[in-house]
Amino acid sequence: MKALHSSSSKGPVKFRISRPTRENLVPIRLDIELEEQRYKDAFTWNPTDPDSEITIFAKRTVKDLKLPPPFMMHIVQSIQTQLAEFRSYEGQDMLYTGDKIVPIKLDLRVNNTLIKDQFLWDMNNFDSDPEDFAKTFCDDLGIQDPEVGPAVAFAIREQLYETAVQSVAAAREIRMSKKGRRSAEYVPASKAGGTSLDLMKLFNNKYSVVRKRKDWDVYGPMVDLLSNEEVDALEAREERNARSMI
């Protein structure tokens, strides 16, 4: 088994999410509705790929799913916007708090498979790989649907990305707060330190990999296989809820 190494440097930590040494994949979500047709998808994208790959992907998606031609432009624009947001954080300092053990929660339905679970993830351990974890997760639980593994890995990467972005915002807030104090400018603590305080509370929680007995049920995976009728009813309810929010 490969030994896992955690970062222990106390210098500025630059923006990064899991596994930058191999592929620093960006979670991409698409939800596009045109001409009474809706296209939803979630996948990861390598930000080092040339932008021409986005157009190729969009053309292939529209062709394979027989979507109206206007979908192609919207798919390209949505992916480009999300990649641009990711790239805007690259090279920026993240909030350093020592250990960064964060809880990851799964609440997914992939086709007929319903999954709920929560576990801890060491954000300082860049040898941890969401795709490897998802494969082992599915193997251990006997999940045979090949679409479940990528969905689990995506959910992990999306939460790690959100935490990393919050960490950049928190580091920026702290810098601005210090600059404000040096300039004798008044900055309300509720605004200047909101994100940083929330992250400090999260990172400073003394999580342990050894679970107390009362937590065993909370930190145990739940996998349920739904019938086609249950899936149809669930999708109808989700569609009604989505339309009611518009």
Termini Cα gap: 50 Å
Shape: globular
Question: Which sheet architecture does the biggest sheet show?
Answer: 3 strands, antiparallel
Segments where pLDDT lies below 50 for 5+ residues?
A: 1-10, 184-193
Count of DSSP H/I helices? 7
Percent helix: 40-55%
Taking strands numbered 1, 2, ... along the chain, how are they ordered across the largest sheet? 5-6-7
Class from secondary-structure proportions: alpha+beta
How much is the radius of gyration in Å? 21 Å
Total E-strand runs:
7
Mean of residue pLDDT values: 81
The share of residues in extended strands comes to 15-25%
Written as H for each helix and E for each strand, in order along the chain, the element string is EEEHHEEEHHHHEH
Polypeptide structure, described:
With 246 residues, the chain is of the alpha+beta class. It has helices at residues 52-64, 70-89, 130-141, 148-182, 189-192, 194-204, 228-244, and strands at 13-14, 26-34, 37-45, 93-94, 101-110, 113-122, 222-225. The strands form three sheets. It has a three-stranded antiparallel beta sheet, covered by helices on one side. A hairpin with a 2-residue loop joins strand 5 and strand 6. The model is unreliable at 1-10 and 184-193 (pLDDT under 50).
Briefly say what this structure is.
By secondary structure, the chain is α+β, with helices and mostly antiparallel strands. Helices cover 46% and strands 19% of the residues. The strands form three sheets. Strands 5-6-7 form a three-stranded antiparallel beta sheet, covered by helices on one side.
